[in-house]
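Suppose a colleague, Dr. K., hands you the sequence of a protein chain of 601 amino acids and asks what its three-dimensional shape might be. Before reaching for any lab equipment, you can write down a predicted structure in token form. Begin with the sequence itself:
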Amino acid sequence: MTTTHRTPPRWVRWTLTVVAVLVPCVVWGVTTATADLSLGPHEARYEVTTDSVVTVDLGPLGTLQIDSPLPAGLGASVTVKEIPADLTAVDQATTLAGLTNDLESYLQFFSGPEESIGHAVRALVLDALRRTGFAILVAGAVGALGYVLLGAARRDELTSILAPRTWEITASVAIVSLVAGSLSSSTQDRDLETTTPTSAVFAGTPLEGARITGRLAGIVDTYGGMVVDFLRENDEFYDMADKNLVAAWDAREAIDEAEAEAAAAAAVPDGAPDDTTAPGAEDEPPPADAVEGETPPAQPGDAGPDATTEPSPSETPTEDAELVTMLLISDLHCNIGMAPLIRTTIDRSAATLVLNAGDTTMNGTAVENFCVDAYMSALPKGTTMVVADGNHDSTVTSARERSRGAKVLDGEILDVQGIRILGDSDAMAPGLIEGPTTRAGGAVAQAARLTDVACKAEDGIDILLIHTPRVGNVPMDSGCVPAQLSGHMHTRSDPEQVGGGIRYVNGSTAGAIANASRIGPLKGTAEMTLLRFDPVERQIVDWQIVSVTPDGAADVGPRQPWPLVVEAAPLDEGTVPPGEEGADVQPPVEDDALVGEVPAG
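The predicted structure, expressed as tokens, is then:
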């Protein structure tokens, strides 16, 4: 008995044909996706698998296996590249010696694994899309070539044979593709080791339930408890600090509200309505000897026309609602524990612009990109970050910042929210192997270029954002830079006049101090600075310190008026501003304040 197949409509056949092409292309694209990224301090290769397990392969040390959070039975294989295949000695002494240099990187990774995992997922998805797109193009090209070569008569013959079986063909292709993809990307050479007990060390952590094989199990059992305890202490500290910061903001807002009410009450004379002027104030006659159009004589205590005054506070002619609130941070050095506190400060201050004065990382390596990710992820939607990279950042750091949406200064003027900002990456580049090297001609050439750009700008500039304060000496002396914001010194220097502008140096937002780890609870006071800018008058109006101390206490200081510039004779060639003795515009020392450089001021 012959079975007859009903031929589907033409549009159904074309739809099923597209599905039959797309399914194997997507399966191939997903199951072959790879990404070369980092895992803690190591370079690693990430590959998609179909065994529902995430396996971290550490070569002769063993593996770490956890259930995959990915859907559709997908997993991942992470192969660490830098562990030698001939490694055989794994005892306490050699293990500690080998891991000591990488300890901070491991702690950075496990302090914020979400950013690294998220980056890996994004990279694998992008690679899968690229591979799928390539497969579709190849399939389309093969189909078009076959269509031309077959000719009309042969195409009609094949259509009459295959058209009635379109459903069966499509289903068969989909099933074969899924099975083949599953088999080709499964890790058949690595058993799941379901009989291996889970490690108790990771209880209560994101790695709870992990199974560890090989020599790695002994290492984790020996040292894992110390690391987990450290991570818990780290999380508890920054959680406490963030709660204290929220309380400090509440206290500051209460103080500001009380002061505003007191000022309003003091402005109203006793017994007079709020909208009246004191009796007789409007009708007070001028002095008897006053001549129309003539300046009244000076009264006792008035400064004469030639009197010299200290820098005075800026006026605030623009309404508060029209001011741009900026948050200045610097010298984060991969302390991602501060990321939530940065977010809290932005939320409570309503800052729309973050100025990063550099040294986001320690060595500018690719494995530190997750630090950039953590800070960028802390920004609320609609917040812009402008970065002047420091001597601990590299072109790799800059590229990562740009890819995450930051605006990295490169020696040209950037107009952001009505503020004209000039800056550049630091003239010193980090060198992990050969030591720091100069870039862009060194600090002297960089200072000259920045001065040239500032002075030739038709509309001028508002802010010079540069990592190392001394690089701004020449630009500030030119009179073309009204304000300079910097970091590098790890010690704050309050606003002071330098040349023709006001310079401010932010302290370390990581609380970095000499010879101490930047990872873990704060070792020194972490500082951020809020600045409000008047886009009409084109000047900074006031500044405000936000700080967190090593005991987790937080403080939000009062707003302080930004000083105005007093005209002064230009500095003689070869001299430096007060407080900067010995800090000329020669290239900075090979490292920053941590190796003995004397902080400004």
